[in-house]
């Protein structure tokens, strides 16, 4: 799994976040998408890497600007009462 972090300019409210999230969900098979207009960030969790140019194009088609894209491996953390 991978975590893709996009720095997005132009989001001003919760509805802007929803527009970006919906655009990503419609364009790609992702596990999770979250956006924050205050942090100017969208985080995408996916099973396989997504082409940066295609992801950027999907977000920019909604009217927002993508300043940067960062991809890193993602490992789901489990909950355990017996962590060492």
Please name the defining characteristics of this protein.
alpha+beta, 4 strands, single chain, Alpha-Beta Plaits, 4-stranded antiparallel β-sheet, 2 helices
Task: Detail the topology: elements first, then pairings.
Blueprint: E1 2-9, H1 14-27, E2 32-36, E3 41-46, H2 52-60, E4 65-73
Antiparallel strand pairs: 1-3, 1-4, 2-3
Helix coverage percent of residues? 25-40%
The span between the termini is: 24 Å
Q: Give me the Rg, rounded.
A: 14 Å
| Strand ordering within the main sheet | 2-3-1-4
Total beta-strand segments: 4
Produce a short descriptive summary.
With 84 residues, the protein is of the alpha+beta class. It is built from two helices and four strands. It has a single domain (2-73), classed as Alpha-Beta Plaits.
Structure description:
The structure is a single chain. It contains 2 helices and 4 strands; from the N terminus they run E-H-E-E-H-E. The protein has helices spanning 14-27, 52-60; strands spanning 2-9, 32-36, 41-46, 65-73. The protein has a 4-stranded antiparallel β-sheet with strand order 2-3-1-4, with helices on one face.
